[in-house]
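subagent[fold] <- orchestrator: predict structure for attached chain, return tokens only, no commentary.
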Amino acid sequence: MDRVEAPWRWLERLPRHLADFADQWRGKTIADLARERVDEDPGFVALVDDRRDLTRREWLEEAQALANALHARGFAAGDVIAFQTPNWHEAAIIDLACAIAGLVLSPIVPIYRDAEVTMMLGDCRARGLFTCTQFRRYDFAEMADRIRGDLPDLTHVFTVRGDGPDDFAALVQEGRTLPAYRPEVDATEVKLVLYTSGTTGRPKGVLHSHNTLENIVRKSYEHWRIGEGDTLIMPSPVTHVSGYANGLESPLIMGTRVVLMESWNAEEAVRLIEKYEVAGTVAATPFLVELANAARQAGTRLPSMRMFACGGAAVPPDLIPSANSAFDNLQAFRVFGASEVPLVSFGWPDDPELAARTDGEVVDYEVKLIDDAGEPVAPGTEGEILSRGPSMMLGYADKAQSSAAFDAEGYFRTGDLGVLSPEGAITITGRKKDLIIRGGENISAVEIEDVLRTHPQVRDASVVAMPHERLGEGVCAYVISEEDAPDTAALCRHVQESGLAKQKTPERFVFVQDFPRTASGKIRKDRLRAEVAAMIEQEKASA
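subagent[fold] -> orchestrator:
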């Protein structure tokens, strides 16, 4: 095969925003660490899914065989291979095979379809794709066939849990008879290109190295006191940064065991936690609530569970203590990060009060908060969060996007608003673009959401800006109610009686069953804003 130049060929080997942190890296690839784990205990079951228990030796041997087969098909170090599968053990073998062969891996969330997948594969110039055949009644292999004509760089499509010579199982078998392909791989090189969820605009390709990924897993697990022999459960998609790092990489970096869940089911999670004596997880907040409820219904307090790191969605302050009460030894806590800067905060595993009311302790990053003019804000004042540290991305695949993402000091602009406490805790107050500017007054959507969630008939709320003829923007609240929905007058009184300014009272309420979400569980507020704007236009037209 002819070589394909990566779109990030412009990227420096050591980007300037990371230069000051290079001394914190261990300089080992994931393949290096896998070999060390096998030497320590080859028979240790490192990965479990609904089909098999995978030992460290089996994991490494099958990954090496797959690397051999891919090399025989013409793939060489630096080429990009994507995969679009659920939380299956095959994803872990593909990941390690790419690390062995020096290939760049691009995980694609299974909810994405033709347009998104075509954009991502084309943007990173992927030469290969591993795709499941059928999953949740959707034919992914058929989709791959449809889009291949628009992807001249995509020379190979491989199936997972399919059949034929281009299926994952056949490739592994083929590779067992081939010479070992082990090129020298530098831990500073691009290992992962992961596309953002795309809450606004075109998804961006986030680039990480072996070093940045290893660092964030190692540092966070040390903070949480999770290590050798501990078992974690992973319901989050392994095609998302959290699921990828904690589900596919942590067993090789920290010596843990991971139980993969193909899809979330709270009752099944209770069973697996009891069976494997699971110590913790990193997952979306709704999973914590549902797990606590399922444990109560099952009459178990899951004593093995020690930690639950919540991220990806707003967390009401009373949620953490309420959930903790369902378990004997669990400490749940909030964390904050993004694909570009994984886990800026590590949470508070030892302080229930701070764990409940903040989004975690800033441990391995440097953080600064700025105002709209780019100036630092006073302590305790809300500002945009900028961060830098040893686990931040190398950059975006696109040079222009990458340059705009950092300030002159190498801090990444998160776009999130927050407050930094004297204890070193960060508390997220909203998104910079999530501000509602009503008659020139800045209104935080998160502040209103927190109040609405305290109403006994409100399960969840998401507040967005809506067009307002006189004031520019008004306040619209999307509400998921309990069985008996409250009337809007009662909700208005509830907001006003909370002590918030009158102008923060929503002018419109929309009751829904659920919110549109990204693969990581974040609410698609762009869609909610578009929806309410369309409602208003339609009402105008029919008036």
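orchestrator: received. Logging for downstream: The two ends are 63 Å apart (CA to CA). The chain has three domains: 29-41+55-186, 231-432, 435-542.
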